[in-house]
Amino acid sequence: MEEQNMNNERNRLANTVIKNHMIWSMGAGFIPIPVADFLAIGAIQLDMVRQLCKVYNLKFKESEGKALVSALTSSGLAKIGARAVIKMIPGFGQIVGGVTLAVMSGASTYALGEVFKRHFEKGGTILDFDVERLKKMYDEKFEKGKEIARKIKAEKDVVETEDIKVVDDPVNQEDDLVSQLTGLAQLRDSGALSEEEYEIAKKKVLEE
Questions:
Q1: Rounded CA gap, 162 and 148, in Å?
Q2: What is the pLDDT of residue 71?
Q3: Which distant-in-sequence residues (6+ apart) come within 8 Å of 103 by Cβ?
């Protein structure tokens, strides 16, 4: 009974880790610099693996973690990359491309998290991955992840629509600006953005 409770708690924590990082990676999909998107998403996904290792009391090795993330998400990144090109189109491309990229980024992070969770639940570690076998699971979870990401995006849109009068308030606009700049600074400090990329992104946010 105690072991079952422990497993349930681990599963709950793992699901929370995956959902949080999924949402963060969707936010990274709106960064107006295509290269920065990939850097930020990769950093978020690697941190997710690190946190899942903590949930399952496993040792995390960054070099192995990076290699596994890269190997497992290669197909998902190819899909994301094709859509990131849309963001190159001024105005329309940054809005439409950002929305699409956000969903794809969220789907990739969800799929990756589910693969690691399932592997760890079965007693596996970060050192004994069968990448080819688990890539099939990743591809399956990627499709489910897109549905979940779209629902998250739709729920966010509903909240923003209901709160549009609040958002229009100058004080709230200022708070939102501070939040965006703080997020960019955190990405820079974590290494996801270079100083140059940070300055470009900051300028874009201030202009908007």
A1: 21
A2: 87
A3: 26, 29, 146, 149, 150, 153
Ranges of H-type helices in the chain: 2-28, 34-55, 62-84, 92-121, 131-162, 164-167, 170-190, 195-207
Cα–Cα distance for residue pair 103/207, rounded to 1 Å: 25
Mean pLDDT of the 81-97 span? 40
How far is Cα 45 from Cα 71, in angstroms, rounded to an integer?
13
Residues 24 and 93 in one domain: yes
* Domain count within the chain: 2
- Tell me, what amino acid is at 77? L
* pLDDT tens readout for residues 126-157: 888 888 888 889 989 998 998 999 888 888 76
Let me know whether 104 and 186 are in one domain.
no
Neighbours of 170 (CB within 10 A): 7
Q: What is the pLDDT of residues 154-176, one digit of tens each?
A: 887 655 444 444 444 444 445 55
Residues 17, 66 share a domain: yes
57 and 111 co-located in one domain: yes
More confident residue, 103 or 54: 54
Q: Give the sign of the dihedral formed by CA 199, CA 201, CA 202, CA 206.
A: positive
Domain of 168 in residue numbering reads as: 163-208
Single-letter code of the amino acid located at 83: R
Q: Do 126 and 53 form a contact (C-beta atoms < 8 A)?
A: yes
Asked whether residue 130 falls in the same domain as residue 175, the answer is no
